[in-house]
Amino acid sequence: LLDPSKQIVIEDPKLELEDSSAGSFTFTIYSDHPAYKLIDSAILTGVVSVYWDDEVLYKGRIISAEKDFVGGRYVETEGEMAFLSDTIQRPAEYHEPSVRSYLSKLLDAHNAQVGPEKQFQVGAVTVTNGTEQVYKYTNWESTLKCIQEDLLDTFGGHLRVRYANGVRYLDYLKDWPRLSAQRIEFGENLLDYSESTNAMELATVVIPLGERQKEKDIKKLEKRLTIASINQGKDYIELPEAIKRYGRIVRTLICDKVTTPETLKKRGEEWLKNNQYEELELTLSAVDLADFGVNTDHLRLLDRIRCTSKPHGLDREFGLTAVSLSLMNPDQNSYTLGSKQKGFSKGVAQSQYQMLEDLNNQPTESHVLAQALDNATQLITMCGKDGHVLFSPSIANPNELYITDYNTIDEARRCWRWNLNGLGYSSNGKNGPFDLAITMDGTIAGKFIAAGTVGADQIDVQYTQNLDSKLQTGLKNTADSIKMWASNELG
After folding, report:
1. Contact 195, 282 (CB under 8 A)
2. Beta pairing partners, 142
3. Cα dihedral sign, 178-180-184-185
4. Could you tell me which residue ranges the Tail spike domain spans (predicted)?
5. N or C: which end of the chain has fewer CB within 10 A?
6. Can you give the residue ranges of every domain in the chain?
7. pLDDT, tens only, 163-202
8. Closest among 234, 271, 231, 221 to 251, alpha carbons compared
9. Per-residue model confidence (pLDDT) at position 263
10. Phi and psi angles of residue 8, each rounded to the nearest 5 degrees, phi first
11. DSSP tag of 397
């Protein structure tokens, strides 16, 4: 289609690549091109490839070819990762020992439904599932949807189609696979850029705070380790160049497990120059020096690229998550560094941060018990003259005592029932089931107290209800850890 050395050209060829996406290649072709008459017969079957020297940058199939008023055809292709949308995963249950094993099963099912021209082999898989098995179900979803939801959404990482020795591989990578030798330097090889970071998120000064200290300056407030003792009496770190541009914007950094001021200072410096930009996305109109014969790497999708900017105090590596290449006009190329979507690592970091925030803000044990006692007092005393004391079978010869909301035992919905075997409360009438029971063998069973322990989800006071609500919404995957922590602390 395109070979300038042989004067075979197409118009406006543009390649769009994106992390874990099929990508696209578009162009316009006219009737004087040798391949013009082949376009219609090639829809969904023909393969269009884009090379950098001998390296395959892209392979895709033609999905549309619209004709304009002068006879030109605007051709759109989609990358071969889209082949995974052509097959479905039948209802099945998987208990796999690894991420690689589960991905292999999905690709086996895919390959069984298509010919060799659409098949994938499992490539490099560096995403792991820890020590637990991968438990998944499939139920008529497309293979691509299963991979995205069961793997990418759960474990994070990056999907990549790779070609080697005539074989099409699907890689599933935890980290950016390659460090580019080419750097992005503001004021050097950067023509223009736009950043999506919110100015409210930028910090030019950070106060790092380490582990909690036993002594307290203010009785009701915790005290934390600072760097003042090794930093000329200052408990903060600043970026002078960034302050000149943006002024002083102060943030705190909590490092609960840091026990020395030296380590704490290193953490603060690293965060200020690097980690605070984790959510930053840069869209660059950079001159890729390799495009002009300079002896350096050209930029590849998923590369790790070092970016520096003195005005921002920025010095960190970003992943190249999207590339827009104009094959005939490389000065129009643009690159996106930093994820458009919240990646798995960021989600986990936010979840861990929120979990620590919620746990750190929990009331003390004495406060919990005081609230529980106060709540019980209010529940008991608010009844006033409500309720009925009834004896069964009769007041003259009783063997059971009932305290009920209705004046007859059979009509009662809420009732306490007390006999020789135990005491129980039911909100479903005299025969239960019972929400709370104290039995003659010493067992106290119920929603609030069980097995001799008090858990975070077993204390019915307002703070735990609010906390549970937040954790259920934002930290589902850490709920068990929170409950275990609370049980140990309060038990």
Report:
1. yes
2. 88
3. positive
4. 96-350
5. C
6. 4-83, 86-173, 178-197+280-338, 205-277, 387-458, 460-490
7. 988 899 999 998 888 888 887 777 666 555 555 554 446 7
8. 271
9. 92
10. -105, 110
11. S
